[in-house]
Amino acid sequence: MLQYVNVNIDGAIIKATKGTTVLDTAIEYGICIPHLCHVPYLSDIGACRLCIVEHVVNGRSKITTSCTLNVEEGMVIRTNTERIRKLRRNLAELLVAQAPNSRAIQDIAVRCGVKEVRYPFRNEDCVLCGRCVRVCTEIWKARAIGFVGRGKDRHVDFPFGIRPDFCKQCGSCIQLCPMTIPPCNGPMKPGEERLCGQCESQMIVADQIPGSCVWCELGEGFACGRYA
Amino acid sequence: MSRLNSYRELEHLREQLRSKRKDITTTIMICGGTGCHASGSQNVIQTIQEELSRQGLDSKVRLCVTGCHGFCEQGPVMVIEPGNLFYCHVSAEDAFEIVHLTIMQGEVIERLLYTDPVSGRKVRTESEIPFYVSQDRQILSQNRGVDPCSIEDYIVAGGYSALTRVVNNGFSPEDIIAEITSSDLRGRGGGGFPTGRKWIECKEAHGDEKYVICNADEGDPGAYMDRCVLEGNPHLVLEGMMIGARAVGANKGYIYVRNEYPLAVKHARIAVDQARTLGLLGENILGSSFSFDVNIARGGGAFVCGESTALMASIEGKVGEPRPKDVHTAIDGLYHKPTVLNNVETWANVPSIILKGSSWFASKGTERSKGTKILALTGRIKNTGLVEIPLGTSIHEVVFDIGGGAVNGNAIKAVQTGGPSGGCLPVGKFDLPIDFDVLHEAGSMIGSGGMVVMDDESCMVDVAKYFLTFLQNESCGKCLPCRVGIDRMLEIITDITEGRGRPEQLDLLEELGDTISQTALCGLGRTASNPVLSTLRYFRSEYEEHIKDRKCSAGVCKALITYMVDPEKCNGCGVCLRVCVHNAITGNKKEVHVINTQLCQKCGICRSECKFDAIKVV
Question: Is it true that domain A131-179 has CATH number 3.10.180.10?
Answer without folding.
Answer: no
